Amino acid sequence: MPARQPFTASVERCASGPRLPGRADLHLHSTCSDGAYTPAQVVDLARRSGLAAIALTDHDTLAASPEP
């Protein structure tokens, strides 16, 4: 797994302080576009960071979405 966090700087700053309910990062990229983490890794890191919600915003693809 890459060493850097996939989250925005504001979320990283919040993660270093007390855990607050309702934190979210609504602009994340995975390896399906130009991110460094797979969709599963992004979800795992978000969960371990205490985020309440995330949004994968990969460019020009829905490859990270499961098929119906």
- From the N-terminal CA to the C-terminal CA, the straight-line distance is 28 Å
Q: How many strands? A: 2
Helix tally? 2
Using the alpha-carbon principal axes, give the shape. Answer: globular
Helix content: 25-40%
Broad structural category? alpha+beta
Q: Report the radius of gyration as a whole number of Å.
A: 12 Å
The proportion of residues in beta strands is 5-15%
Spans of at least 5 consecutive residues with low confidence: none
- Overall pLDDT confidence: 79
- Order of helical and strand elements: HEHE
Strand order of the largest sheet: 1-2
Largest sheet: 2 strands, parallel
A few lines on this structure:
By secondary structure, the protein is of the alpha+beta class. The protein contains two helices and two strands, in the order H-E-H-E. The chain has a two-stranded parallel ribbon.
Description:
26% of the residues lie in helices and 13% in strands. It has a two-stranded parallel ribbon with strand order 1-2. With 68 residues, the chain is of the alpha+beta class.
Strands, helices and their partners?
Layout: H1 9-15, E1 24-28, H2 39-49, E2 53-56
Parallel strand pairs: 1-2
Keywords:
alpha+beta; 68 residues
